[in-house]
Inverse folding.
């Protein structure tokens, strides 16, 4: 199959057709209309075989995740997604693999009405890169640098399921097969918190998506904002399956496991009332986990106020945490 045939068969006839796409796939470049009252938000991410996923990954899950991680970055900016481009490096043309990859990719694209408008393919070691584009009203994007002392810190959904699933897959932890199956869903098919990001626009002060683990990503917010935080580890939201393994696994996967794709955000004391009113519109839910402080650094505490000591080995993401 030539590259032209491959593009025509798998990428030209895709399901989402937006009115703001003047010209999509098929010319030298795409032509896109940005609404006059909006800023364009652009993000990109690359997933490389053996580094970001195992070579025998389910192609449907890979198609989903390649787009999901980019939509998650748009969510963290409070942006509404519009378009994406796809670069695909394939070791060989395997039509069964491509069909499944596209099924995962387009199911998520359809869910968020985001249209593929271009890309490139090449022969080589398996890698996928997506660039996603979205809109925010002028000056309304959620940023990392906007946290202030006294802000409450929240996180959507639950943390640590993906980290625990990855630890099982890498042989660092043994979970019952049923538990692994349910946690694996969170690792392979994260759901970007787009709707939640739109609710938080105008309510949250700072926001970030949790891709490298709460400690690392909240650490970026603290650094960019020039502040610190006290986080109550025992308030971190975890799933019922995670809770079953809490005694053996501790909180480390929830703090530093990564791949959660939840939103971590802060709300200033003056906006808490308004935030409470909007909270029922956050369908993933939101849990208060701590407070922003003027004193820099991230301090993890237990409910009784004593410092939390990470128990597991093998996590690089505790780097920003203040030593107890
Ligand atoms: Mg991000």
């Amino acid at each position: 199959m030539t590259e032209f045939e491959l593009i025509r068969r798998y990428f030209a006839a895709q399901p989402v057709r937006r009115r703001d796409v003047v010209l999509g796939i098929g010319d030298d470049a795409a032509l896109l209309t940005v609404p006059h009252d909006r800023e364009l938000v652009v993000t990109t991410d690359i997933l490389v075989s053996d580094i970001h996923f195992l070579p025998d990954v389910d192609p449907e899950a890979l198609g989903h995740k390649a787009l999901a991680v980019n939509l998650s970055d748009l969510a963290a900016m409070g942006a509404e997604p519009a378009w994406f481009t796809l670069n695909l490096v394939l070791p060989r043309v395997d039509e069964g693999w491509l069909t499944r990859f596209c099924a995962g990719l387009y199911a998520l694209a359809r869910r968020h009405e985001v249209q593929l408008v271009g890309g490139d393919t090449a022969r080589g070691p398996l890698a996928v890169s997506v660039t996603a584009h979205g809109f925010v009203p002028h000056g309304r994007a959620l940023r990392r640098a906007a946290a202030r002392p006294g802000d409450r810190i929240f996180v959507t959904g639950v943390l640590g399921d993906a980290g625990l699933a990855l630890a099982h897959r890498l042989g660092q932890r043994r979970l019952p097969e049923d538990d692994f199956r349910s946690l694996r869903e969170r690792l392979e098919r994260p759901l970007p918190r787009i709707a939640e990001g739109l609710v938080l626009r105008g309510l949250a002060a700072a926001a970030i998506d949790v891709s490298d683990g709460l400690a690392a990503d909240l650490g970026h917010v603290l650094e960019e904002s020039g502040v610190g935080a006290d986080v109550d580890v025992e308030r971190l939201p975890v799933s019922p399956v995670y809770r079953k393994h809490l005694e053996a696994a501790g909180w480390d996967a929830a703090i530093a496991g990564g791949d959660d794709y939840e939103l971590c955000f802060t709300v200033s004391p003056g906006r808490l009332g308004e935030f409470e009113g909007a909270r029922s519109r956050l369908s993933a839910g939101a849990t208060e986990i701590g407070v922003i402080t003027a004193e820099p650094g991230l301090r993890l505490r237990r409910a009784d106020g004593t410092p939390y000591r990470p128990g597991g080995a093998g996590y690089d993401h505790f780097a920003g945490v203040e030593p107890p």
